Amino acid sequence: MSDWSKYGIHKGLFLWPGLWVLAAWLIFAFEHTSGNSLKMYGLTPGNLGNWYGPLTFPWLHGDINHITSNTISLFFVGALIRYSFPKEFDKVWVISLLAPGIILWFIGRPSVHIGASAWLYALVAFVFFSGVLRLHIRLLAQSMLMVFLYGSFVWGVLPHDPSISYEGHLSGAAVGFILSIWLRKVEPIESLKDHKLILEEDVPWDDWKHPYERSLHFEEVIPTPDIQSIRPQGQQFRYEDGSSPDELA
C-alpha cells in the first residue's frame, strides 16, 4: 500500500465515508427490525425543543431506496474529497454534516426533515466549485464528473415536489459553495496539481529556434583551401617523361 501513497491511495481513504455508511445502515436496520420509529429525531425547523435536529436528521431515512441512494453517493463523493484534499477532508466533512442542518432549521417548512441529502449536496457542490474556482485541469475533470453523475441535483433546490426537502438541498449546496470559496487556495495532492507551463520569456531565444534553423547557423566561415597552398614547397609537378607544365608553356 505504501507504493500507492504517492497517488493518494492509503488505508484511511475510505475510513470515514465507510464508517458513516455503516452507522446509517445500522440505525436503519434497528428502526425497521425493532419497529421503533426514530422520526422524532428528525429536524423540525423553528422548534427550540428540536435543538439536536441538525445533528441527528442526516442519519435517518424513510425507506430502502432513500438510504441506498444516499449512502452510495456519500461514500463515493466522500472518498473523492478525502483523496483530493486529505488535509482538509475532516473540516469539509464535518461542516457539510452540521451547517446545512443549522441553516435548514431557520428556513425550512414546519415539517419533519430526514435524510443525508443536504449533506450530500454540500459535498457535491464543494467538488464542483473547487474545480471551477481553481481552474485546475484535473479538478475540472472532477467537476464534470459531478455534473455527469449528479447534474439532476439542480432541480432538487427548487420547490417542485412537496415531499422533498428542497430547503435542505439548497442549504447543502450553499454550504458547499461557501466551503469551496473558503478553501480555494488550498492545493490538492501532488498527483492532481497542474504542471507549470513553460513561458517563452523563461527560455533563451536560441532554444526556441527550429532545429533545422539552428543547424544552418555557423559561428565562423571556414575558407576553402587553395590547392596550390597545400602543395609541398620546393617540389614541382612533372609528367612521366620528366617534363613540366611550365616547360611546355
Can you offer a commentary on this structure?
With 249 residues, the protein is mostly helical. It has one domain (2-192): Rhomboid-like (Rhomboid-like fold), CATH 1.20.1540.10. 51% of the residues lie in helices and 0% in strands. It is built from 10 helices and no strands. The chain has helices spanning 15-34, 53-56, 64-84, 89-107, 117-134, 137-150, 153-156, 166-182, 211-215, 245-248. Helix 4 crosses helix 8, helix 5 packs antiparallel against helix 6 (137-150) and helix 5 packs parallel to helix 8. The longest helix has 21 residues, at 64-84.
Helix amount: 40-55%
Assess the beta-strand content as a share of residues: under 5%
- Would you identify the CATH H-level superfamily? Rhomboid-like
Q: What is the CATH-assigned architecture?
A: Up-down Bundle
Number of helices: 10
Which structural class fits the helix and strand makeup? mainly alpha
List keywords for this structure.
249 residues, 10 helices, mainly alpha, Rhomboid-like fold, globular
Question: TL;DR of this structure?
Answer:
It contains 10 helices and no strands. With 249 residues, the protein is an all-alpha fold.
Topology at a glance:
Blueprint: H1 15-34, H2 53-56, H3 64-84, H4 89-107, H5 117-134, H6 137-150, H7 153-156, H8 166-182, H9 211-215, H10 245-248
Helix pairs in contact: 1-3, 3-5, 4-5, 4-8, 5-6, 5-8
